[in-house]
Amino acid sequence: MTVPRRRTASEQVSVALLDAAETVLDRDGAAAVTVRAVAREAGVAPMGVYNRFSSKDGLLAALAIRAFDDLAAAIDVGPEGGPADRLHRACRGYRRFALSHPARYTLIFDVGSPAADPASPVTARGREVFAVLVDMVRGLTLRRGLDPLHAAQALWNGQHGAVTLELAGVVQTPDAAATFDQTIDVVIRGLQTPRA
């Protein structure tokens, strides 16, 4: 029997501060995530936040990595079903994450995101999550000459665009969920070798 690893007191403090930062982010948006606001939410002195994350940028980077972790969990559909079915379910998970946590979604994908820095650990985590999508796309019978990386980017473009429009409230159809499913279906069919 494996004994579960216990978090150290230091890890518990970091988790509690990130929880507080996430509360501020979800409630007030990324611009409101400051060292002072997080310290106030957590009930600690600002120095406690600085000691864990060095700066506001360090705090936002840790929040963005956590958001990518949550997104990874949302698109993890397991091995059941065929490749296209798995992709559909993963894309629905992506949409659910974005709609349930719009501030977290915006933090990782909006202009000025910590993920925009190629040297950032946030960018590395984002690439790891994208690699899950690439692996799922590899299961499709892709059109001749279509690289799985480019196919996955095309699929991401479609789902991200659809979700971003929905979050902005500018979808022109009456059922955004049905339109999202149709968008994903069109993209997945377009990536695959046409059936004879």
TrEMBL record:
Keyword annotations from UniProtKB, A to Z: DNA-binding, Transcription, Transcription regulation
Span of domain HTH tetR-type: 11-71
SUPFAM superfamilies: Homeodomain-like (SSF46689), Tetracyclin repressor-like, C-terminal domain (SSF48498)
Top-level taxon in the UniProt lineage: Bacteria
InterPro entries: Homeodomain-like_sf, HTH-type_TetR-like_transc_reg, HTH_TetR, MT1864/Rv1816-like_C, Tet_transcr_reg_TetR-rel_C_sf
Pfam name, any one: TetR_N
GO molecular function: DNA-binding transcription factor activity; transcription cis-regulatory region binding
DNA-binding region in chain numbering: 34-53
Descriptive protein name: TetR family transcriptional regulator
Organism of derivation: Mycolicibacterium psychrotolerans
Taxonomic lineage: Bacteria, Bacillati, Actinomycetota, Actinomycetes, Mycobacteriales
